[in-house]
Amino acid sequence: MRSVFVLVLCVLIFGCQQSKTTNKLEIGFYRATLALQDKEVLPFNFEVTSDSTLVVFNGEERIEVDEITIKNDSVFIQFPVFEGYVAATFKGKNLKGDFIKESVGRVVPFEAEFGNKERFLTENEAKFNVDGIWEVVFSEGIEADEYSAKGLFKQTGNKVTGTFRTTTGDYRFLEGVVDGSQLKLSAFDASHAFYFTAQVNDSSMNGNFYSGNHFKEPFTGTRNADFELPNANELTFLKEDYESLDFSFPDASGKLVSLSDAQFKNKVVVVQVMGTWCPNCLDESKYYTQYYNHHKSDDLAFVALAFEYDKTPEKAFDKIYRLKERLQINYPILLAQYGGINKAEAQQKLPTLNHVLSYPTSIFIDKQGKVRKIHTGFNGPATGDKFVEFKKEFEGFVAELLAE
User: Fold this and answer.
1) Does residue 19 surpass a pLDDT of 60?
2) One domain for residues 43 and 160
């Protein structure tokens, strides 16, 4: 009897150990989906490359993830920089759970199917080609919500890549298809979960834009190769009778930092209005860090002003530290606001500005402390030639200020 008990105990122990070891992410491709409104789903793909790493794909973008925790039958996937994470349980080789952003209380149902690398499952050949430039209006006719965008798309067969540029930035790397006459595009970067769907023909599109499972708005578009957005250097400016910027915000040690401090005296200063939650700000921070590291000068300084969702400064600075560590940012990031990112409230923190229209916004200050230019938004890598144009303009203008 004792030998039978020992045998059963060994089987149970071995079985428990075996079940634990089989709970792992399989090496290979997954098709993930997030459940949205209207029974729509946002698909994206990732590849598990080792027991502790995976890569998320959005068009040309590759997001490397190296914070994966497996506990019993659950897996927790923490994405880099941004706070969003996936908490899921193993369903054989598949996953089922939620994508979670705690600071804003958002939970989006998540599933992932192993062995499927198709983003969108198409049923029909493309009837139309959306390749080119589109003049787009979001929330047309809805007071205070309407805004314009420039659609930039490339299509090969069913496959489509591109982005929407707006006055406040771009919607980063979108990837999708034209299925018959339906355009479908998605992007997931752990901050934003974007899904666009529209009925299209040769000259127009009409559809909806979903952000996670909490937001939906309509959009329309017409093909227009000559369409241009307003000049990003003319949207934000100093109020009349002002020529300088002033602020005093704390760094991680609690020390108040101001433009009048010695570290900024007689220097060209680039002030970056941003947030750790903002993908366009991430793109801009990567570029500014690269530029700053390759153009070290005693006459040049950068400083970022962070506007954060977190309800306490401690949590906000945790996000700031994470961003600085991940991107190896060597310039100071100050906490300008926590508990929300309302732009009207943000403008009160920088009262000489006519408004804070966009995160990010860059303010260029010369060696005499005068504001020389304010650039609203950021044209990131997903915008192609516009990103190249921005870098050329940025570097040329900073060089001019340094030469004065």
Assistant:
1) no
2) no
